[in-house]
TrEMBL record:
Cofactor(s) needed: Zn(2+)
Transmembrane segments: none
Amino-acid positions noted as binding Zn(2+) in the UniProt annotation, renumbered to this chain: C105, C108, C145, C148
Gene Ontology MF terms in the entry: DNA-binding transcription factor activity; transcription cis-regulatory region binding; zinc ion binding
Protein name (record): Transcriptional regulator FurA
């Protein structure tokens, strides 16, 4: 007797919501798109390589190039957000419904979401808008995360000689 694994109810609900959003964006619902969305949703702030590795657990034959194409397409239609920390590969997330920012650890690369500091998009008032209707502002807070600070505090100081 063969059994098939059923998705958890929350996963099925998420897949149905993504399917609706894909269709409303004029995109077909494919297993590749759903797998990429699921991977990014479960691992926010992932690189394309990390997304490809996660997707390969359910679609072993998918190529990295295919994952890049899907990431680009899903970003273009607003189902994913692409974030590019300084001197690092692009990261992807499914949190697209607000204008939040990011805190980035310059030592280990940890990324954390930072809610909009003013309350509504674009969160910042520029000195000049150049005739554009501004939709969002991307702010990157660069610093050192708590884990790196703790590790630094625990490590012995170099001996001067």
């Amino acid at each position: 007797m063969q059994t098939t694994e059923r998705p958890a109810p929350e996963d099925a609900g998420r897949a149905a919501a993504w399917s609706d959003r894909l269709r409303s964006s004029g995109r077909r619902v494919t297993k590749q798109r759903l797998a990429v969305l699921d991977a990014v949703d479960h691992h926010p702030h992932s690189t394309a390589e990390d997304v490809a590795a996660a997707v390969r657990t359910v679609l072993p034959a998918i190529t990295v190039q295919s994952v890049y194409v899907v990431l680009s397409d899903l970003t273009a239609v607003g189902l994913l957000r692409k974030f590019e920390p300084p001197a690092s590969p692009a990261l992807y997330e499914t949190r697209t419904d607000d204008n939040h920012h990011h805190a980035y650890c310059v030592r280990c690369g940890t990324v954390a979401d930072v809610d909009c500091s003013v309350g509504h998009a674009p969160c910042l008032t520029p000195s000049e808008h150049h005739g554009m209707q501004l939709l969002s502002a991307d702010v990157v807070y660069r610093g050192v995360c708590a884990s790196c600070l703790a590790a630094e505090a625990e490590s012995p100081s170099p001996v001067e000689g």
